[in-house]
Design brief:
Distance between the termini: 158 Å
Helix content: over 70%
Shape: rod-shaped
Radius of gyration: 65 Å
Largest sheet: none
Structural class: mainly alpha
Strand content: under 5%
């Protein structure tokens, strides 16, 4: 089990590291071949100059030997060019394989991450969470509706109010259909006069006597 879990990853990392190391070695070899090619081309050019000098000196044998060595150098240059071409092809293939491997590793890592997320996310938990959200939403809506309703709005019986409204409508209809009756004018109310009390004759005599005493 541990081999399946960790051994595969170790082998993959080793293969990737080996590919990177191989590419680095191939680059070093390519640089070495390029240097050798340049050196051989300089030697070939030098043999040509020597052949010209021997030819001017009428030493044909020596000039021919110089040209032979030039041909050998040229053959080595061509061989090195083929080596470089093969190394270039191999490097391109390894780079492509490395890019493919890295792409596959990235896709595998993404698939593993998605699988782990799916393991941690249970469908029952999702349904339970959605039910809780719906319940809380419904509770909040009920609270908002309760706060929005006016105070005392439920203290009255709607049926009784409807009956009262129907009675008012019937009264209005009766007033429209029945003409008003002619009423007789009412006489103004007069307060009855108070009876005048009779005067006592002794009171008149007493008043006269008082006037005479005041005149002395």
């Amino acid at each position: 089990m541990f081999t399946r879990l960790f051994g595969g990853g170790v082998r993959e990392n080793t293969a990737l590291a080996s590919t990177v190391a191989t590419l680095e070695k191939m680059r070093e070899a390519l640089e070495m071949l390029e240097k050798k090619e340049g050196l051989l081309m300089k030697k070939s050019a030098g043999e040509v100059e020597k052949a010209k000098e021997f030819s001017r000196a009428k030493n044909k044998r020596a000039a021919i030997q110089c040209l032979k060595r030039k041909k050998m150098y040229d053959q080595q240059v061509d061989q090195l060019a083929n080596f470089q071409l093969r190394i270039h092809d191999q490097m391109i293939m390894l780079d492509g394989a490395k890019a493919t491997r890295e792409t596959v590793d990235a896709l595998r890592s993404g698939a593993k991450a998605m699988k782990d997320i799916q393991k941690e996310t249970n469908i029952d938990d999702v349904d339970k969470t959605m039910d809780e959200i719906n319940e809380q939403t419904e509770n909040l809506r009920t609270i908002q509706e309760a706060l929005a309703s006016p105070f005392g709005a439920n203290d009255f019986d709607e049926d009784a109010l409807l009956e009262e409204l129907e009675e008012l409508e019937e009264l209005d209809l009766e007033e429209l259909l029945i003409p008003p009756s002619i009423t007789t004018p009412v006489a103004p109310y007069k307060q009855p006069a108070q009876p005048v009390a009779e005067r006592d004759p002794h009171e008149d005599e007493l008043a006269e006597l008082q006037r005479e005493m005041m005149a002395i």
